[in-house]
Amino acid sequence: MSKNMSVVNIETINEDNRKKLEEQSFEEAVLALTEKLELANSLLKTMLETTHEFLVFGLDRDYRYLSFNNRHKEMAKDQWGADIAIGTRILDIINSNEERDNLRGFFDRVLAGEQFSSLEEYEGDSGNVIVGKNHWAPIKNSNGEIIGILCFMQDVTEHRSFIKEMLKEKNSLDQNMESLSFYDQLTGVYNRKFYEKELQRMDEEQYYPLSIIFMNINGMSKINSEYGHAVGDILMRKAVQVLKYGVRGDDVVARYEGDEFVVLMPRTEGAKVERALERFKKSLDEVKVQSIKLSVSFGFYTKYDESDNTESVIKAAQRQLERQKELDYI
C-alpha cells in the first residue's frame, strides 16, 4: 500500500452518518412539535375570543394572569380601572377589600381542588351592574398537580329569572349551593341580601298590594340542645322546602335571620294571603323528624301603595308574628 494512501475507517463513517441522521431527526421533531404547539395556542386563542358569552381568565398559584380573553380584559378596565397583562397579579388591581377577600376565597377553594359555580354582582366605573355566573375549576399538570385557576364568567344580567331557575332545578342541596352569593348555605333559599334587593325592586305600583310574610320555626334552640344541630338542620330544611314549593313563581322566599324566614307576595292581599298561609300550615303539619313535630308561626302585613312606609309594614308583620308565636308555642 502506498504511503500517501489513507486508510478509510468504515465504522467511523457509519457513526458520523448515524449522528447526522439523529441530529436531523431531532431537529425535525422539534420543528414538528413547535408547529403543533403554535397550532394549539392558535386554536386556544381562537376559542377564547369566540366565546362571546363568556369572560375567561386563568391564574397561576400566585394569582397572576396566565391567560385571558378580550372580554375579561375590557371588564378589568371598566370594573377595576386596570390594564391587565400576562403576569399581572389580580389581587393587586382590586381596591375593594370586600371584593378582594371574596375572590381570594374562591381562588383558594379552587387551588384546594374544588370545582364549583358562583353567582356574583360586579359594578363598573360607568355605574353599570353586571350579574355573572362564574364557573371555577383547577388547572392541573400531567401529574395531576394543581398549578392554577380557570374561570369562565357568563353574563346573566339580562336574565334575572335565571337566578330563580337555577335554584328550581336543584332537587337537593349540594356543595355548589354554598358559593351562590344570593342563597342561604344551609337551607338553599334566598338569603337576606337578595330579599332586600327584591323588596326594593318590588316597591313599585305594579307590584301593589305587596304582602310581606314572616315565618318562625318555633323551639329550634331547644331542638338543637336536646337532639343536636344536625337534627335541627334537617327539620329546618324540610320546613323551608315546604314553604319554597308552596309559593308562586313571582313570590320570593328568603332566610331573614336564624330560624326566621320571609316571603314576598306581590299583588296579593287579605283573603289570598290567608289561604296561602292555611296551605302552608297544612303541609307543614305533616313535617316530622324522628319524634319531633314541626311548630311554625306566621305574621304578615300588606303594603297597598307608595304612601305606606315599607319599614313600618315590615315591623307590623313582625309584631303580628311575635303575637302568633305566643299562641302557637308555649
Write structural notes for this entry.
The protein has 330 residues and is of the alpha+beta class. The chain folds into 2 domains: 50-168, Beta-Lactamase, CATH 3.30.450; 182-328, Alpha-Beta Plaits, CATH 3.30.70. It contains 9 helices and 11 strands. The protein is elongated and about 105 Å long. Residues 170-175 have low confidence and may be disordered.
CATH class of the largest domain: Alpha Beta
**Uncertain segments:** 170-175
Name the assembly state.
single chain
Whole-number tally of structural domains: 2
Q: Summarize the biggest pleated sheet.
A: 5 strands, antiparallel
What overall form do the CA principal axes indicate?
A: elongated
Reported by name, the CATH topology of the largest domain is Alpha-Beta Plaits
Distance between the termini: 125 Å
**How much beta, percentage-wise?**
15-25%
Strand arrangement within the widest β-sheet reads 2-1-5-4-3
Number of strands: 11
Give helix and strand order, one letter per element, not per position.
HEEHHEEEHHEHHEEHEEEH
Mean pLDDT: 80
Integer-rounded radius of gyration: 31 Å
Q: CATH superfamily name of the largest domain?
A: Reverse transcriptase/Diguanylate cyclase domain
* SS content category: alpha+beta
User: Helical region count?
Assistant: 9
- Residues in helix, %: 40-55%
Q: In the CATH hierarchy, what is the architecture of the largest domain at level 2? A: 2-Layer Sandwich
Pfam family, one: GGDEF
Organism: Acetobacterium wieringae
GO molecular function: diguanylate cyclase activity
Protein name: Response regulator PleD
